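seq as requested:
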Amino acid sequence: MKTFTSGHPGPGGLTLRCLAIASLSIWTGLAHAQPASADLSAPIQLYGLVGTYVAQSKVSGAPRGSIVLGGGGLTTSFWGLRGKEELGGGYSAIFVLESFFRPNTGQMGRNASDGLFSRNAYVGFTTPYGIFRFGEQTTHTYLNQILLNPFGSSVVFSPLVVQSYTSSYNNTVVGDTVWANVASFESSTYMGLTGTVQYGFSNATGHQGHDNLGLNLNYENGPLQVALSAQRVRSAASLSTVQQYLYLAGATYNANFVKFYAAMQTTNTTTTEVGSHTYELGLSIPATLTSAVLVEWAITKQSAPKGKNSIRNTASVGYDYYLSKRTDVYAVYSYDKLNGKTSGSTYGVGMRHTF
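struct tokens:
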């Protein structure tokens, strides 16, 4: 994109794994344990993604649009460091440090409020039973949203993601795509099933019970992938008192000549009595051995007090062309319509390079 992640994208590089799988799909479809004392200077890997785009954008209801050169586009730019040390017996110590950055300005983070390692920053263990992680982590709900749409982690062009997290689209999800102070466990795969639990501590005096919780289940069997997420947010950086429940279910199916995407998402913010239902469909159609046509549509029906209900339709169509296995260029058109408002359109072109 949380080897994306979203802006993010699992933790420690699922976005890049998703991008690598997507690129291989476009191109044609895509130890021995040592004692801890044996190597005290295990290699550290540097990796990341650099992307920029130019777009003329106007969302529905906005008085006027704008032309921007932005950092990111289909994937938010980031760089990371990761390392692993074998401890013996199938156990390893791991760490991941990942930082967003804006290549259009050279600044750190997605915005001025982001810290240095605001994408992922954790230490943990791999075991025969699964992976334990402790620190700042991309939410697995967001990773599943990335999995369930053809535009991946894009907070610019993916209808599912922009309706969930982008404020100009009246975002339905409370909180960020990344949680701080998280302890998580991701199980080993059993018969295609993988489970993940994320618990985010509020770390604030007098805020017991104001913690975040995420439960996720993923299933993969050949061309079929299924994702389920349940998320409770009680601690958000920009809100002092909030409680939201989110449920996400979706699937993808790769028929080789086309990949299908579908998802349903519901949110209930009990503190403001605002709820939403989002439905999403998508296609990824190989056009040549090195390119694909991406199509996605999402509709969100939002309910709110005092008759402030709304219906938003957002659709995107794009063409993604791979110059190599690590570099691609793309063009995207997005249409946006909020009921009772004038429609909006976005035209964008960009490029990405992974390293």
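The radius of gyration is 20 Å.
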